[in-house]
Design a protein that fits this description.
27 helices; binds magnesium ion; 3 domains; alpha/beta; 8-stranded mixed sheet; Rossmann fold; binds alpha-D-glucopyranose; 725 residues
Length: 725
């Protein structure tokens, strides 16, 4: 990274499923390697080239699979001086189609957090691409307090509608595409996004409009750019490129104008209608060759069903109309051949056609335009805008084969109009579809939401410091942090000194509301994280966002109604007031003289197949929590999620519900005023019993571990201790 740190925006793009790399993209290899993969790589580069952007990370899935190139297994790939692709784990190592990635998104989220931690900086902006990344982006945005930008690329509700219309049964749609989950992820992304980037107006007005979270005030239309260095008309001295050989070997008269179609072999792309249109119009067959480049293929027989069907139909139609010698359909081509294909077609005075049934954008159309090749395209979304801007061709009805062949013939026949279209296409591409123009508009819109310039529409978000901390202090609240105001004041003054890389959290039996209230009363500054209700809830101090991952994790086997039912009438137990009963916490007052032993209660519950963790504190409280919840487990979860090593965490407590967070590999301190339940921790490694009480005890513990200086590694400390005896 060659720019000074903190000099500009740190932007993170997320595009999970594709095979993405910085060179020779395998576009059209399968349904998941379409325009989106190219879009995100070019966007990353164009953003990184801007002086006000310091760093761009493009996060994607790491794939380690002998069926795909080893490039996709590299954890990091630098693609420009300030841009890199970062590959993170997401489920199994092998390549998977996007529809089956849903269960693995949580591991991607956790890996992303660790990545930000390694970078040592919280991003200024997250930009998710497609539904799965939208889900991940929404969660990360909440966890980090960072604004989210989302681009759908294609939308589940639109796809479902189209599949419905095609006659596919709802259950099959569900089974094949996991469409409900996708739509829900899109709703979550749209509900959380500070800005949604669409490519066309139609996308906003007809497609996004189908969503519950349709907020036009947050949507901007910025068409994607095209790489004008790669896509340009044939220049003086142009000679047939290597790919010409792959095309010309099919053709009897290779010099004729070339009708070029370039798309994945997908039903929606409607190539078969094009072949029929061409096959049935003898004048067109006489006037031009048809060149179809339907991705790459080795063996049609082993391709996925959609591709197999499309390619088989293509071959059958060629045979039926006897199109040998005038239709080319090369088997292989490389990404760098694509600009050459457009130039060959332009040079032949040919035309580009996109006959897709629907076309949300159609990147190939602006590539053709930039290459000086006129276009014939479907009357839908992208093409309407593109032909409107570039005035370089005509729109057609993709289902009307006759109209299609007439339009093609027409485009080739009129020489002076062909020239006009060709020139106006290159001009239009430069004017409307350069990446430079794209990122300029993009950053103008983004500056409003990142709060660099004061935007009226979006509130400035508070950001989490957790990715940049290198140590974390977690205090129990009652009788530890609070209780002695003089001590608290001294502690806050001490922490004030070193707060830069120090994270601060509280862990308490109180509810969130009552915690916030009591912290305010004692004028404690807002912690970075709050573990409340005895570890059954985690919130982040910026914006009070709940950690949903934790809630989902602990919900396992939790049946609070049955627990209450089972303990009804037990002597010595009385339910605490409603305010103390939480989603994951059932709390009683317990009278140890009258109640059965805690162990006996536990046994009784187990015999009824009820599972809860029983936590006894102050000889007065009994809390029932899910098996997976406790203050200590919450701290461990946080340590893992945010990548904080246990020896960089120092924990303080005074009573029974603190016990499990005081033991283990984290450093810990029991304050002098502790309750008898904690006596059993004496002698355990990394548990220091302070002499001083309340926050004085915290200060003593901080000095004991020299926690605000260079923290000592546990090993070193152990040696020192034993040499002291
Ligand atoms: C706090 C909570 C109470 C809980 C006790 C012990 O006082 O308010 O509900 O039982 O801590 O964890
Ligand atoms: Mg306490």
């Amino acid at each position: 990274m060659n720019k000074a740190p903190d000099e500009g925006l740190y932007i993170v793009l997320i595009s999970i499923h594709g095979l993405i790399r910085g060179h020779n993209l395998e576009l059209g290899r399968d349904a998941d390697t379409g325009g989106q993969t190219k879009y995100v790589v070019e966007l990353a580069r164009a953003l990184a080239a801007r002086p006000d952007v310091q760093r761009v990370d493009l996060l994607t899935r790491r794939v380690i699979d002998s069926k795909v190139d080893t490039d996709y297994a590299q954890p990091v790939e630098v693609i420009a001086p300030s841009a890199q692709i970062v590959r993170l784990a997401c489920g199994p190592r092998r390549y998977l189609r996007k529809e089956v990635l849903w269960p693995h998104l949580f591991s991607f989220i956790d890996d992303a957090l660790q990545h930000f931690r390694r970078v040592g900086r919280t991003p200024d902006l997250l930009h998710s691409h497609y539904a799965d990344a939208g889900y991940v982006g929404a969660r990360l945005a909440q966890l980090l307090g960072v604004p989210l930008v989302h681009t759908g690329h294609s939308l589940g509700r639109v796809k479902r509608q189209r599949l419905n219309e095609s006659g596919l049964a709802p259950q099959s749609i569900e089974r094949q595409y996991n469409i409900t989950q996708r739509i829900e992820a899109e709703e979550i992304a749209l509900g959380n996004a500070a800005m949604v980037v669409a490519s066309t107006r139609q996308e906003v007005e007809e497609q996004y409009a189908q969503y519950e979270n349709y907020h036009t005030q947050r949507m901007v239309t910025i068409p994607p750019g095209v790489d004008l260095e790669r896509f340009h008309p044939p220049r003086r001295g142009w000679r047939a490129p290597p790919v010409a050989e792959l095309v010309n070997r099919f053709l009897a008269a290779p010099r004729k104008p070339m009708i070029l179609a370039l798309s994945r072999p997908d039903h929606r792309k409607n190539i078969t209608t094009l072949v029929r249109a061409y096959g049935e119009n003898s004048a067109l067959r006489e006037a031009a060759n048809l060149v179809i480049v339907p991705g790459n293929r080795d063996d049609i027989g082993v391709m996925d069903r959609g591709a197999r069907e499309v390619l088989t139909d293509l071959l059958l139609l060629i045979d039926r109309y006897d199109l040998y010698g005038c239709v080319a359909y090369p088997k292989h081509h490389e990404a760098h051949d694509v600009p050459d294909l457009y130039r060959m077609a332009a040079r032949s005075r040919g035309v580009f056609i996109n006959p897709a049934l629907t076309e949300p954008f159609g990147l190939t159309l602006i590539e053709a335009a930039a290459s000086g090749l006129p276009i014939v395209a479907t009357r839908d979304g992208g093409p309407i805008d593109i032909i409107g801007n570039c005035k370089n061709g005509v729109l057609i009805d993709p289902l009307d084969a006759d109209a299609m062949s007439e339009a093609l013939l027409d485009a080739i026949a009129d020489r002076s109009r062909w020239l006009r279209w060709s020139r106006s296409g290159t001009r239009g591409a430069r004017q409307h579809y350069s990446w430079e123009g794209h990122v300029k508009k993009y950053l103008r819109a983004v500056n409003k939401i990142t709060g660099r310039r004061r935007g009226r529409r979006f509130p400035r978000v508070a950001r989490s410091r957790l990715p940049s901390i290198d140590r974390l202090l977690v205090c129990d609240v009652d009788s530890t942090l609070l209780g002695d105001s003089e001590a608290l004041e001294a502690l806050l003054a001490r922490l004030g000194d070193g707060r830069g890389k120090l994270g601060f959290g509280v862990a308490t039996g109180r509810s969130l509301e009552s915690t916030l209230k009591v912290l305010k009363q004692w004028t404690v500054p807002m912690p970075d994280l709050l573990i409340t209700a005895v570890g059954s809830e985690i919130h982040y101090g910026h914006g009070m966002v709940e950690d949903q991952g934790w809630a989902q994790h602990i919900a396992h086997r939790w049946r609070p109604d049955a627990l209450r039912q089972a303990l009804r009438g037990t002597p010595g137990l009385k339910l605490q007031p409603k305010s103390e009963q939480r989603r994951f916490k059932v709390s009683y007052f317990i009278d140890p003289d009258k109640a059965p032993a805690v162990r006996a209660i536990q046994r009784e519950l187990r015999q009824r197949d009820l599972h809860a963790k029983l936590i006894y504190s102050h000889e007065a409280y009994l809390d029932l929590l899910p098996m997976r919840a406790s203050k200590g487990l919450a701290i461990r979860y946080l340590a893992m999620r945010w990548g904080i090593p246990p020896e960089a965490i120092l924990v303080f407590g005074d009573s029974g519900n603190d016990e499990d967070m005081l033991s283990g590999n984290t450093l810990s301190v029991v304050v002098g005023n502790h309750t008898p339940e904690l006596e059993r921790l004496r002698g355990q490694h990394w548990v220091y019993f302070a002499e001083a009480t309340h926050a004085w005890g915290i200060l003593e513990g901080i000095e004991y571990y020299n926690f605000l200086g260079e923290p000592r590694a546990p090993e070193e400390q152990q040696e020192q201790e034993s040499s002291q005896c």
